[in-house]
Structures are given as C-alpha cells and as structure tokens.
Design a protein that fits this description.
CATH superfamily: lambda repressor-like DNA-binding domains
Low-confidence stretches: 72-84
Shape: globular
Radius of gyration: 15 Å
Strand content: under 5%
CATH topology: 434 Repressor (Amino-terminal Domain)
Distance between the termini: 16 Å
Helix content: 55-70%
CATH architecture: Orthogonal Bundle
Largest sheet: none
Number of strands: 0
Mean pLDDT: 80
Number of helices: 6
Structural class: mainly alpha
Order of helices and strands: HHHHHH
Length: 84
C-alpha cells in the first residue's frame, strides 16, 4: 500500500508527520489518513509534493515490490518484472 510506503520512508528519514505534511503543502491529518490507508494518494500533484518532501523520486512512492519466487523463477515473477 502506498500509504505504508510513505510512512516507512518518512520514518526512515527521521522526519515528523507534521514536517512532511507542511513541506508537501497538505494538512497533518490528510497525511496521517494517507499513511493509514484511509485516504487514497491518487492525485499526481500530491504524489509529486510528497516525493519532494521526502526527497525521493515520485515513482518510488508508487512502485510495488516484485513477488519473491518460492521455487525459482515463475511465470508470475517474469510477468511482474516485464510490466514494471
């Protein structure tokens, strides 16, 4: 979930919720709702603003991890990599 990714990055960078929200031009409650998955992060302007506030590429916020194959490379893993 993108909100969880935002929170992990924010905490990993040692930034407070209120600081990142301010840098991104949004309220603390909106960012809190995004991180908890209660508000979708679906506006490009919000994604770009949060990426800037967290000092990451906007694509890094939306990128999902690839599935880890359990018994070697599977068709699902290869398909996931091809579409990333």
């Amino acid at each position: 979930m993108i909100g969880q990714r935002v929170k992990r990055i924010r905490i990993g960078r040692g930034k407070k919720l209120v600081v990142v929200a301010g840098l991104a031009g949004m309220s603390k409650s909106k960012l809190d709702n995004i991180e908890r998955g209660e508000t979708a992060l679906d506006k490009l302007s919000d994604i770009v603003a949060l990426a800037g506030a967290l000092d990451v590429a906007s694509g890094d916020l939306a990128r999902l991890p690839l599935p880890v194959p359990t018994n070697g490379h599977t068709d699902a893993t290869i398909s996931a990599r091809a579409t990333s």
